[in-house]
Amino acid sequence: MSKKITKICCIGAGYVGGPTMAVIAQKCPDVKVTVVDINEKRIAAWNDEDLGKLPVYEPGLDKVVEEARGRNLFFSTEVDKAIDEAEMIFISVNTPTKTYGKGKGMAADLKFIELCARQIARVAKDDKIVVEKSTLPVRTAQALKSILHNTGNSPAGKEGGVQFDILSNPEFLAEGTAVEDLHAPDRVLIGGDNPEAIQALVDVYAHWVPATNILTTNVWSSELSKLTANAFLAQRVSSINALSELCEKTGADVNEVARAIGTDSRIGPKFLKASVGFGGSCFQKDILNLVYIAKSYGLNEVADYWEQVVLMNDHQKHRFADNIITTLYNTVSGKKIAFLGWAFKKDTNDTRESAAIHVADYLLNEQAEIVVYDPKVTEEQVYADLDYLNTRDEKENRKLVTVVNDPYKAAHEAHAIAVLTEWDEFRTYDWQRIYDSMLKPSFVFDGRAVLDREELEKIGFEVYTIGVGG
Ligand code: UDX
Ligand code: UDX
After folding, report:
1. pLDDT band at 3, cuts 50/70/90?
2. What is the CA radius of gyration of the chain?
């Protein structure tokens, strides 16, 4: 008989921890779920009465939080207390790419994970199941186990000491559809070596996920599957983006090519949308991780193969920016370029690794003036993203970049419009009104192939659509 879980704690109230725990609480009213975070502002936002102020924007998330919060879903900064009472602890803190030392720019920085492990070891007075939710390089569970069993209340080998079981339960939700993905996951993956601990977590998900959709594996397979899933998905985007450039040269249309190949059931229709480049907190980080792991085993060909997916993505962002410069008569200096979209995809306020940041940086190096409009991203975030690159000082970024909350204002007297995110609302704008307020000739660079090119050309725009030749 596996242990019945009545109290869960999750460390990390971010894009993964927040929505995942909210849905677990919604679907398991008999389980108390406490989400803790060291960031007080974030926790306060999760507790805000105004559901419009939740720190993560996801369609449908407000309803889930409204249903469960205060009933069996709690957000708190009292990390020790939550660890102490829980039988099962999820670790969902961030694992950014290292910016220093060995593996710089490639390996995952596991310092937050280690801190969590040490804290759990220090606080735990009874047996715990520790679940890795953060995406981690293969064999991190080993490090976790070692820290948990050698520090705090469980000295190695000590009779009656606290026992820890480590499970890997990677998250496959995509931002923008997180709630949908959590409600009806293609599969839930649980890796572990103790069948009882595995069953305890299976029982949690079995509240709403059919048994056939819950896969169990050993820990290493589970950890590696997460990196592999993201590498395969990103590879499809880089593959179609590679073809988008060839389409532009030959007069083909990448959207037609995608439709044609997507009807082959072996290939399938998803993840074949050409774009200005993939972004998000996972794709690049996870592939670089895979590359680093392969290299560390001396598998250089394997490493090169996957690294090319990231290199292709960098190329796609640069060539989009280059094309803007070339088309605007080889100079954008002092020219106003309106950015529609800053988030890395639609229906999220997340901007991590968004293509928009890199395209903007490239154009700013050419002294362009950029005006940004995104339906969900704040001015503060846009500046933070640019400052983080450290290409120019903060004052310069604020001088060259303006953030507005009205798309028509963004387009006013602009030389060009660049579409960086595929927000639905962009299609329904009054494009005649936009055209009338822009400088002539008025250019549109559609990096997501979302606008009606024919209609825009009829109005008088000069239109470039990613992947469409002629
Ligand atoms: C992160 C990783 O990026 C992803 O690889 C992993 O799969 C899940 O965790 P995300 O939830 O999007 O994804 O990250 P983020 O929104 O940055 O949230 C992490 C949270 O952990 C932050 O709110 C941070 O304050 C918190 N944290 C970090 C702690 O509470 N304690 C720590 O020691 C470190
Ligand atoms: C991804 C994985 O899909 C998810 O399973 C994992 O848990 C986390 O990483 P996410 O980063 O939220 O999710 O978004 P995703 O929908 O995968 O998109 C990633 C990027 O690829 C976005 O910038 C998106 O615009 C781009 N993309 C996606 C394309 O350019 N074309 C496509 O056809 C699909």
Report:
1. confident
2. 24
pTM (2 d.p.): 0.93
How much is the average pLDDT of 2-11?
92
Instruction: Mean pLDDT check: name the lowest of 222-226, 337-341, 463-467.
Output: 222-226
Has 171 been annotated as catalytic?
yes
Q: Which residues in 55-82 are b (16+ Cβ under 10 Å) and which e? A: bbbbeebbebbeebbeebbbbbeebeeb
Name residue, tokens 């070692």.
146
Q: Which ligand is nearest to the CA of 58?
A: 2
Over residues 334-384, the pLDDT tens digits come to 999 999 999 999 999 999 999 999 999 999 999 999 999 999 999 999 999
Closest ligand 1 atom to residue 93 Cα is 21
Cα of 420 vs centre of ligand 2, distance in Å, is 14
Q: Which residues contact 256 (CB under 8 A, 6 or more apart)?
A: none
Pocket test of ligand 2: the residue of 61, 132, 275 to mutate, having most ligand atoms within 8 Å of its CB, is 275
Report helix angle 300-327 to 219-250, nearest 10: 40
Q: Which residues does ligand 1 sit against, CB inside 6 Å?
A: 11-17, 37-39, 42, 92-95, 112, 115-116, 133-135, 171, 281-282
Name all residues whose Cβ lies below 6 A of ligand 2.
Answer: 171-175, 230, 233, 237, 271-273, 275, 278-280, 282-283, 344-345
Query: Which tokens go with 348?
Result: 């999220």
Q: Residue 67: which H helix or E strand, with range?
A: helix 61-68
Q: Which H helix or E strand runs over 14?
A: none
| pLDDT higher than 80, residue 388 | yes
Query: Residue 466 CA: which ligand is closest?
Result: 2
- Alpha carbon of residue 374 to chain centroid: 17
Q: Which of 58, 132, 171, 369 is catalytic?
A: 171
Comparison of pLDDT for 452 and 103, the residue scoring more: 452
Query: What is the layout of strands, in order, in the sheet containing 88-91?
Result: 73-76, 32-36, 7-11, 88-91, 128-132, 164-168, 188-191, 214-217
Task: Please list, in sequence order, all residues whose beta carbon lies within 8 angstroms of the beta carbon of residue 399, skipping any fewer than 6 positions away.
Answer: none
Please determine, for residue 36, whether its predicted confidence score (pLDDT) is greater than 70.
yes
Per-residue model confidence (pLDDT) at position 415: 98
- H or E element that contains 91: strand 88-91
pLDDT tens per residue across span 152-188: 665 554 656 788 999 999 999 999 999 999 999 999 9
